[in-house]
Amino acid sequence: MHRYITLPGPVYIESGGILFSRGDVQRVDPTMHDKIDVWSGQQQSDDPAKLQALHYSGRTLHSSETVDLCRRLATAGPASNVALVYAHRGHRCQWKTPLLQSLLAKLGPGLQVHGLRVDQAHLPLDVILLAVATLGGCDRCLIVKDNSIRLGTTDVVPVNTVQYLVLSRSTGVWAVEGIVINDDVPDFPSLMAPPSLDTLWTDPYRDADSLSLASPMTNACLGIINLVRVKQSDAFVESGISQSTLVGSPVAFVPAGAEPSRAYGDWLAPLCESEGMGDA
Fold first, then answer.
1. Taking the domains of the chain in order of start, what are their residue ranges?
2. Is 257 exposed, middle or buried (0-12, 13-18, 19+ CB in 10 A)?
3. Answer CATH for 12-171 from 1.20.120, 3.90.660, 2.60.40, 3.40.47
4. pLDDT tens string for the chain (280 positions)?
5. Partners of 175 in the beta sheet?
């Protein structure tokens, strides 16, 4: 079954990409075990003696690259009303200090903030839907997907990726024309499968006028995001973020005869209950 999502208004993609962060992985000292928490309902299967921890410069939980990215994106656009959706990799054990709290201590005031744990290494559509919903109360929304696992055994590595996407309701490089959710993942032939959203900023799409990109969800459904390039007038590039004067306004894409799904605000509660997601 296909569900066609009704957008809350014009939605644009300002920028996005992937950056790398490097930290230090060290064995957890036994005296630090009282600072480790275990997810409720989960059994601790890691041997405490083999636990490793990822830290960044100054023994912090966040890399300078992640902090600088959030600061830069929060101030790059003209709008002062900005929200942040911070998603990080979940694990069966974690530090008692919440990651979102640690990040906010390094950022200035004024951000509306949502934090989520997401098991998947990719940026799932669930997080994007939540970010789009926040545009009903703000001008821009920054999505930061932190793929570092900070506490564990063999899955703790020093080099990790941070994915980001900046949404706006007033300007951007791409206009979101519509989002479709397939409850049953279609079996595309290899040559017909839509490209992943993660490839949006690669060179093959530099001259494309429209795109349909796949974005899996945490519940195994598949989302398709339809994008149309915004005609640029007096475009400029500042701090690596492309912006342009808006020409026209996108409309929600709902095929003839199809019934629109729920509005984005109605997705907020189900998203927090989705498998693999929870509070930060």
1. 2-11+173-270, 12-171
2. exposed
3. 3.40.47
4. 788 888 889 999 999 999 999 999 988 877 777 677 654 444 455 566 778 889 899 888 899 999 999 988 887 766 568 999 999 986 666 666 678 888 998 887 778 899 988 888 889 999 999 999 999 889 999 999 999 988 887 888 999 999 999 999 988 999 999 999 988 765 555 545 678 888 887 766 777 899 999 998 988 888 999 999 998 653 433 333 333 322 222 323 333 333 333 333 333 333 333 334 444 5
5. 12, 228
CB 5 within 8 A of CB 126: no
**CA-to-CA dists, residue 269 to 158, 203, 208, 266, angstroms:** 34, 37, 36, 7
Residue among 22, 27, 19, 50 at smallest CA distance from 158:
22
